[in-house]
Write a structure and sequence with these properties.
single chain, alpha+beta, Rossmann fold, D-amino Acid Aminotransferase, Chain A, domain 1, Dna Ligase, domain 1, 3 domains, 5-stranded antiparallel beta sheet, 4-stranded parallel beta sheet, 32% helix, globular
């Protein structure tokens, strides 16, 4: 197969592993810098160009779209879809997962466990928003944030009010969520491929940091998840429409609560923690499912 991977940094562990796994299985794979792709929009002649050459002949595309380039990245993925090229994760699904408010609404709609979440536009409603999530401590997060960036723990109602008003003053959209104290600064990532959890790890934040992101000094270890947690991860992935994703959740007193569904999950942490060949499983899924014209949305998203 001839594969394309949309990624800005070919040297990242995750991207190197995907290239390695693809080549080991006899495929060719090109790593394409998403921001350097040019889109040609013409009736009946959609095309993409990269380094002065037209991109053609690909059997499948593996989007690794960073949160900071979501808008343009989705435009490129949609163009591949319009051209009939199968994409591992489709543009509509990636877009859903990147919108924290939309994804929370979608997961709530099918009864997925979530932390109590509030969202309001009017700065005058700050005290009501604080009350809706049960008061401090609470987590305040940017709608567009990722990897723990733009996530703040407010330990008192007074500090929460100040943080919310500061964000509002900067015209930034935020979500306010209850703080799951019993999680103890740990979360669980379940890696879902094709509707199955293939690996899971527990992450613990660095000392004095409630966020468990590994690149922020956190640690990880393999973990056996329960049937309920496995079902939650699979249902969350399905509702987002993602073939491959990382579902991050906390263990609360009332069961698993999903914090995020990541459409471009890192591979390094979970491979090293579990010893599972996640990259190989992703490429195997591409082999089994990629088919020209099989894209569901065909760029309509």
């Amino acid at each position: 197969m001839k594969l394309a991977m949309l990624a800005r940094n070919a040297k990242l562990y995750s991207h190197q592993r995907l290239v390695e796994a693809a080549e080991e299985r006899g495929h060719t794979i090109d790593v394409i810098n998403t921001l350097r792709v040019n889109i040609s929009i013409a009736s009946h002649r959609p095309a993409l160009y990269y380094q002065d050459e037209q991109l053609r002949g690909y059997d499948a595309v593996i989007p690794r779209i960073g949160a900071s380039i979501t808008f343009y990245g989705l435009a490129v993925v949609r163009q591949f879809e319009t051209m009939g090229v199968w994409c591992l994760n489709e543009s509509v699904a990636i877009g859903r997962s990147r919108d924290k408010l939309r994804s929370t609404q979608l997961l709530a709609g099918i009864g997925i466990g979530l932390p109590v979440t509030a969202f309001a536009h009017d700065p005058k409603e700050t005290e009501e928003v604080i009350e809706l999530v049960g008061g401090a401590p609470m987590v305040i997060k940017l709608l567009e944030g990722t990897q723990g960036i733009g996530v703040v723990l407010a330990e008192t109602n007074k500090s929460a009010k100040s943080i919310i008003e500061a964000f509002r003053g900067a015209n930034v959209n935020i979500l306010v969520q209850e703080f799951i104290k019993e999680a103890g600064g740990t979360d669980i990532r379940a890696l879902v491929i094709g509707g199955k959890v293939v690996a899971a790890m527990q992450r613990k934040g660095a000392e004095d940091d409630f966020r468990s992101n590994l690149h922020r000094g956190g640690s990880a270890k393999p973990i056996k998840i329960t049937a309920e947690e496995r079902s939650t991860a699979v249902r969350a992935a399905k509702r987002m429409g993602l073939n491959v994703c990382g579902v991050d959740f906390l263990r609360s007193n009332h069961g698993p609560v999903v914090m995020e569904v990541n459409s471009s999950p890192g591979i390094e942490g979970i491979e090293k923690a579990t010893g599972i060949d996640v990259a190989g499983k992703i490429i195997k899924f591409v082999e089994d499912n990629a088919k020209a014209g099989k894209t569901k949305t065909r760029g309509r998203g």
